[in-house]
């Protein structure tokens, strides 16, 4: 490096004022006393630079780039980078003064207050090949290690404005290795590189019995940058083979205390551990590029934080923002008029922060914790894109990201102490395994395994306190990704991805309070959401293929536990968990071309959990307001084609659960142990639809969804007032447009097997005694609508197949049948147009249809028929006259027809007399009919038309053997027909006549 450049960098630091702070970096040869007191101000920037084994190809010749091994710092430019850079010391002038004041009265001037700012930027440039109108070749084996000790030990006990620490320990390593760049030439490299950079250390101080003492503000950063194994070609050939490893850490625990103090022992750690990577990418413009890379990145920052604030004022509080997550652009291929191939494997681990513990026992405004841990891994890998070219990728990604940790505190016998606030978003953003082309070929392949976690359990207490031990949290677990997609216009594209993802935000809030006021309450709003698009294809005069598998677990928050015994406005829980997946997968759309997509989904989502508390002997205590919301939004298995062949296949297993059981106790309490809830569960189902226009489309879907909002509720209110009441509004809504097929001059086929369970609320139970106590009120709300299995044909063929088995549970409903799929009311069998009236005869057991009853049979019924119940009969009589004409005037009628004529005329209609069965007794009693050996010819009440063979017969609206051709009178209704060989009515079981239609199609 030129002398002027070195001096320019030094001058920049000087003019920036850093040297004026009296800082310095010791060389490896300096003697450092680890027992020396830390300087009041110690700041510096170090840039170790290592350049080795790089090659530049020119038209004239291939040149090896000169080796550089230097360290640039605010103190001096050294000639060599030591393997382990020694710990920093103060500027020589400051050190000299510090030595002289040891053991004197001036020793207490600084009172242990320390400002330390260390930033290290190691740079490793190795094994790169650059060809410009020539050929270049490099082979590198590179290693760089740096270390700085940033540990701090000081003390401010028993003093005012003492032992405070402001620290920055940040390492930002840059690794630029194994890249091949070709411009009008050929570039090739084969490189192995390693870079290890560490800084930081534990920070220990104390502010016990002090005032504004022992406070710590510490930034701990590990932010490596890695650019390795890339191949870029323009009118040339670039070939890169690379293995790279980077490790960066700025770790250390923070320990302080503020016992018996004022505004002391507070801690603000700021751990940052994101990684930035651009590795293994292949880019070709009128060129050929190939990359085969393997890279590993590790970043750790921060550690545990322990302090104490009891008994104290505004002491022992902790605020920790933390950021973790690799941000990577790895193994992508892009080709424009060329060929690009990328094969790589990426492994990353990022961790920021850790457990936080403090106490505010017997204090005011102490022992509180606020955390904002953010875990955000972002990856774009394994994607292929081409324009009049070929792009191919094969990518594996394994990422783990963790931010924050559990929080513990105590606020007993305190005021505004031991409270916890937590905002812990956990996410993962992925664009992986996609292929897109314009007049070319592109293939993206990705194997993705990601874990993202933030926070943990929050535990505190607020016994005998005021405004203490409360917990407020907003857990958010939200993966957002697009993978396994394929899009082609005038070409061929494929996307393939295998995804495994575990996203967790925060944990269980747990607090306890006896004899408190406005203490140990919990407010939580856990949110689980999953916007995911995968295995989707789209083609325009092209061919597309996608195949993706998704295994995702999303968890936000956990069970809420609180107590408020013998307390006032304590132990209450307000929770609003939501679980809302939003997934689009296994769908294909093509206009002129061939399309095939396959998606396999297994998603498990959970927001919140059980809410358990108590308000025994309390006032406005132990109440729960719970408003969980669960949905199951998915669009899957659609195939839409115009002049094309489109096939889509999907399997789906979704669990979306919000909230859980709610349990409280308001015994001997006032306005305590009440449970108020609204639990909506919504399932919009749209799987397996297909549309074909001058083409062929097929959809094959197997889906199983479980959407649950809330669960059982229990409370008690013995000897209480306005307590133990349950007020719930469970609501379910099921809407579906699925398994429909539309064909216009084409063939559309769908086979959809659908199973769903939608559940809101559950069993409710309360018991107790007292005014306005132990009451229960529930208002269930249901809605359902569907458009399913409807074939629509316009000069085409549409086929719908499959099954549907759905349940809908609302509140305490235990049957579980989907009401929308049930036919309302009692369903009559075909041929019966109304139920029997109060005075009509029900179905006859034992009455054969093919043989009408004889007069002897009627005689046998004497004493059993309620004659006044038969229409058209004269007033009831106990005895009929005997002898000539004694019965001539008796003309019984059934629906206006003379019974005798009907029986006589119908005998000729029967092919043969079947063996008659005895009629059972009707379950009613009636005046006895006289025994008549034979009935004389009955007078004709009206003329009857000739009865055809299919003539009717009807009794009380039940069609026994209906026929056609019998003209009814004006007040009679026309009768439908039954075939002659209809089964005997004796075979009709009235218990089975009115069957219930379930949700199974």
What does this structure look like?
The structure is a single chain. With 1001 residues, the chain is mainly beta. 4% of the residues lie in helices and 49% in strands. It is built from five helices and 70 strands. The strands form five sheets. It has a 53-stranded mixed sheet that branches. Strands 10-15-20-24-28-33-38-43 form an eight-stranded parallel sheet, with no helix packed on it. Strand 4 and strand 5 form a beta hairpin. The longest helix has 13 residues.
Alpha carbon gap, first and last residue: 80 Å
From the alpha-carbon coordinates, what is the Rg to the nearest angstrom? 42 Å
Tally the helices. Answer: 5
Structural class: mainly beta
Shape: flat
- The number of E-state strands comes to 70
Percentage beta strand: over 45%
Summarize the amount of helix as a percent range: under 10%
Major pleated sheet? 53 strands, mixed
Low-confidence stretches: 1-32, 76-98, 817-836, 841-852, 857-861, 864-899, 905-1001
Q: Overall pLDDT, averaged?
A: 82
List the SSEs and their pairings.
Elements (H helix, E strand, L loop, with lengths): L2 H13 L25 E12 L2 E3 L4 E3 L3 E6 L3 E2 L13 H10 L12 E7 L2 E4 L2 E4 L2 E13 L4 E2 L11 E7 L2 E4 L2 E4 L2 E15 L2 E2 L11 E7 L2 E4 L2 E4 L2 E15 L2 E2 L11 E13 L2 E4 L2 E15 L2 E2 L11 E13 L2 E4 L2 E14 L3 E2 L11 E7 L2 E4 L2 E4 L2 E14 L3 E2 L11 E3 L2 E8 L2 E4 L2 E14 L3 E4 L9 E3 L2 E8 L2 E4 L2 E14 L3 E4 L9 E3 L2 E30 L3 E2 L11 E3 L2 E30 L3 E2 L11 E3 L2 E3 L1 E4 L2 E20 L3 E2 L11 E13 L2 E4 L2 E14 L3 E5 L8 E13 L2 E4 L2 E14 L3 E5 L7 E3 L2 E8 L2 E4 L2 E14 L44 H5 L33 E2 L2 E2 H9 L46 E2 L2 E2 L30 H4 L8
Parallel strand pairs: 1-6, 1-7, 2-8, 6-11, 7-12, 8-13, 9-14, 10-15, 11-16, 12-17, 13-18, 14-19, 15-20, 16-21, 17-21, 18-22, 19-23, 20-24, 21-25, 22-26, 23-27, 24-28, 25-29, 25-30, 26-31, 27-32, 28-33, 29-34, 30-35, 31-36, 32-37, 33-38, 34-39, 35-40, 36-41, 37-42, 38-43, 39-44, 40-45, 41-45, ...
Antiparallel strand pairs: 1-4, 2-3, 4-5, 67-68, 69-70
